[in-house]
């Protein structure tokens, strides 16, 4: 979750370099993510303003979906960042299996919420949206997360990458594998229409009180994780879905 930096005059006097603090921060995040601990918490997020959970904000017409249940009672909306390591961990440990197990019973919507500390989040979102314009959103979404280390992480396998050419090469490879028109794929990815969809996701998320990723809503109510492992979070989310389906 993005936070404003606060300069501490005490630590500043001790002379730690910016690189040292960056290394410390990366190591802490890596330990938490690799250990399976939930590294985000919405308790410090501002409350969503009145009406922010409305369908027109969370799930406007034309939103990308992973699974649909026309007329069904449950809609899940996830605001995500494709380069966010916790979003990738959610995909691997929670949402991928939920999408499969609840297919046809819930509508699962995904919205873009790229964070500024992830330099390849916007290019990845552009690739996903460009694939959507050729009817292959779900397939590109899967490839971006399933192949995450090859484009999203640096050579050390720990830090997020800022290597845009390498990432674009991977995105082009996915597009070819999906049978997309590569020329159109490039044009769409760079188009104002795609950028507008990304910007709208960020604006809608902000209006709904989203400050970090992933943030999930079930029928307009923010999902508040209470467990300290992904297995516990998976059980909690499934419990909420089952309760909503039974209502």
UniProtKB/TrEMBL annotation:
Q: Member of which family?
A: Belongs to the thioredoxin family. DsbA subfamily.
Keywords assigned: Disulfide bond, Membrane, Oxidoreductase, Redox-active center, Signal, Transmembrane, Transmembrane helix
Matching SUPFAM superfamilies, A to Z?
Thioredoxin-like
- Superkingdom of this protein's organism: Bacteria
Q: Which Gene3D superfamilies match?
A: Glutaredoxin (3.40.30.10)
The family database entries (Pfam families) matched by this protein are listed as: Thioredoxin_4
InterPro entries the UniProt entry points to: Thioredoxin-like_fold, Thioredoxin-like_sf, Thioredoxin_domain
Indicate what this protein is called per its UniProt record. Answer: Thioredoxin domain-containing protein
Q: Where is the Thioredoxin domain?
A: 42-246
Q: Where are the transmembrane segments?
A: 20-40
């Amino acid at each position: 979750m993005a936070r404003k930096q606060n300069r501490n005059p005490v630590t500043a006097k001790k002379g730690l370099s910016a690189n040292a603090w960056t290394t410390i921060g990366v190591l802490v995040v890596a330990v938490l993510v690799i250990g399976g601990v939930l590294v985000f918490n919405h308790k410090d997020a501002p409350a969503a303003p009145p009406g922010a959970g409305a369908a027109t904000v969370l799930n406007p017409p034309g939103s990308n979906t992973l699974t649909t249940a026309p007329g069904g009672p449950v809609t899940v909306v996830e605001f995500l960042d494709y380069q966010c390591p916790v979003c990738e961990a959610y995909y691997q440990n929670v949402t991928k299996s939920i999408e499969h197990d609840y297919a046809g019973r819930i509508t699962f919507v995904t919205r873009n919420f790229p964070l500024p500390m992830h330099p390849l989040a916007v290019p990845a979102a552009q690739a996903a949206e460009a694939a959507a314009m050729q009817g292959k959103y779900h397939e590109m979404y899967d490839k971006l997360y399933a192949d995450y280390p090859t484009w999203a992480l640096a050579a050390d396998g720990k830090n997020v990458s800022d290597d845009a050419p390498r990432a674009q090469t991977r995105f082009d490879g996915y597009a070819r594998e999906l049978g997309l028109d590569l020329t159109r794929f490039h044009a769409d990815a760079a188009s104002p229409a795609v950028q507008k969809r990304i910007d709208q996701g960020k604006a809608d998320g902000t209006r709904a009180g989203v400050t970090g990723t992933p943030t999930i809503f079930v029928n307009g109510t923010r999902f508040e994780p209470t467990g300290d492992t992904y297995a516990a979070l998976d059980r909690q989310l499934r419990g909420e879905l089952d309760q909503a389906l039974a209502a």
